[in-house]
Amino acid sequence: MTLTLRNARRYGGGDPVDIVIDGGRIDRIRPAGTAAGEFVDMQGRFVGPGLWDAHVHFTQHVIRRRRVDLTGTHSAEDVLEIVRAARAEGAPLLDGMLIGYGFRDGLWPLPPRLADLEAVVSDIPVVLISGDLHCAWMNTRAAARLGLRLDESGLVRERPWIGALAVIDQSAALPVDAYREAAEAAARRGIVGIVEFENADNAAEWPARVAAGVTALRVEAAVWPDRLEQVIGDGRRTGEPLEPSGLVTMGRLKIVVDGSLNTRTAWCWDPYPGLDPSSAHACGVESVPIPELRRLLARAQQAKLGAAVHAIGDRANSEVLDTFEQLGMHGTIEHAQLVREEDFPRFAQLGLTASVQPEHAMDDRDVADAHWAGRTARAFAFGSLHHSGAELRLGSDAPVAPLDPWVSIAAATSRSRGDREAWHPEQRLPLGVALTASSRTTIAAGEPADIVVVERDPYACDRDGVRAMPVAATLRGGEFTWRGL
User: Fold this and answer.
1) CB atoms within 10 A of CB 328
2) What is the mean pLDDT of residues 13-41?
3) Which domain of life is it from (predicted)?
């Protein structure tokens, strides 16, 4: 069926046009009012390529609303007060556990203590998940249930915690309607596709969701190392469809090499302030030893699976770049939050994509100033990556930041939020670069008809106008997944 978007304007100005869609692709573009057939009048609204979020944890995003909200807290006492109130008010339990999400302890005046949490709730399991998903504060009942050992802080970090989080998620039994609602909400912000990095059996779960009616988004479904051999045995290859509609394709092998900034586990060349430089984790955590990284990447390369490697600290980025170079392999480096000056050009030289999350720079600027003092000129350095020739992709890391590409674009181009001045404004991206890094197509004949229709020209908007961009419609393959015209 042929459909025309009549009287549409492309970003940046120019005369209105008719965009003729046929067979899920843009067939031709004509002067406004000259294309025949069925049409929807855009009334001068602006059209651009449909948007992608290049890094999400979709189940974490969906389940977030079922967890006690800790995002507004600034201390251990703040968190405990919310937990105390949630328990007193009978907050819903998830599989018998009280679960919270969103604390960030990087700047807390006093560290968390197990005894303090036990004093608030000790009769049921309590698991409080950090905003970056890399650690949790829990009581002894929760640790016993999850098979974890606690020290006096009650914090569990990195690999033991990430494994426990996967167990918690598997027991959540979220209804398919929750996924459908979240996908449709993403479409209302102009999103046509996501790169799914959930630690789950994505190659099986996403085709089942599409079959059950979760059809608003395209999905690239990543695999983690513990399911790598299963995916290889099933003959999966990156880019190949995983279900008949073609909405879900096989993504990349996801490997997490280090931790995070807020948890002070990102693997760096220099120690974190206040830590004994001779201690084992003074410079962060090497979550996957580099020889094991090399083995996993080589296995994926042999099986024609792409790779996406999480590297946040500058030591992690150096080691990951070295490993890709040794294997002569392309891929993406996820986050790339702190990079040595000499390593910026290597992304382009090695054909590697930097998959970054601009809103993290807004969330973490203060903790970066504290824990990466003297190094922040090369932290969240999107401008340096771009000027060095690296290909960029923008994402949210949802639920760590909102699943909203306009938020990411605004953060990338302004380096500011609210009433604060721009943080390292020299690292801002041009708007055109940020838009390109948030899409996979263009508005041109022959391209897939993945299109977002907005009320304002992004090039005529200020920072907050971009961040709150009103989206009038979204089309995925020529079909409306959101229509508010």
Assistant:
1) 9
2) 94
3) Bacteria
* Contact in structure between 405 and 190 (CB atoms under 8 Å): yes
CA neighbor of 247 nearest in space, from 222, 211, 197: 211
d(CA 362, CA 401): 10
* Whole-number percent of the chain with pLDDT over 70: 100
Please compute the mean of the pLDDT values over residues 82-111 and round it to a whole number: 95
Widest distance between CA atoms in the chain:
74
Pair 289, 401 in one domain: yes
Show contacts of 174-178: CB within 8 Å, 24+ apart.
Answer: 174/59, 174/62, 174/63, 176/209, 176/212, 176/213, 176/214, 178/62, 178/63
Q: Which residues of 186-198 are buried (b: 16+ CB within 10 A; e: fewer)?
A: bbbbbbbbbbbbb
- Strand, helix or coil for residue 428: coil
List CB contacts of 25: < 8 A, sequence separation 6 or more. Answer: 446, 447, 448, 449, 478
Which domain, by its residues, includes 147? 65-170
- Asked if residues 176 and 214 have their Cβ atoms less than 8 Å apart, the reply is yes
Over residues 50-56, the mean pLDDT reads 98
Q: Which residues contact 205 (CB under 8 A, 6 or more apart)?
A: none
Q: What is the dihedral of CA 440, 445, 451, 453, to 10 degrees?
A: 130
Q: How many domains does the chain have?
A: 3
**Count of C-beta atoms within a 10 Å radius of residue 23:** 10
Question: 245-291 pLDDT, tens per residue?
Answer: 999 999 999 999 999 999 999 999 999 998 888 887 899 999 999 99
Do 356 and 275 have their domain in common? yes
pLDDT of residue 173: 77
The verdict on 79 and 130 lying in the same domain is yes
Looking at the structure, do residues 369 and 480 belong to the same domain, yes or no? no
Shared domain check, 328 and 227: yes
Q: How far apart are CA 108 and CA 113, in angstroms?
A: 12
pLDDT of 125-163, one tens digit each?
999 999 999 999 999 999 999 999 999 999 999 999 999
pLDDT at 156: 97
Helix ranges (DSSP H) in 251-404: 290-302, 314-327, 344-349, 358-371, 382-387
DSSP conformational letter for 467:
H
Is 359's pLDDT higher than 90? yes
Is 31 within 8 Å of 15 (Cβ atoms)?
yes
- Is the same domain home to 352 and 382? yes
Question: For residues 35 and 225, which has the higher predicted lDDT (pLDDT)?
Answer: 225
DSSP-based three-state secondary structure for 104: coil
Q: Are residues 231 and 327 in the same domain?
A: yes
Give the whole-angstrom CA distance, residue 136 versus residue 99.
Answer: 10
Report the distance separating Cα 367 and Cα 365, nearest Å: 6
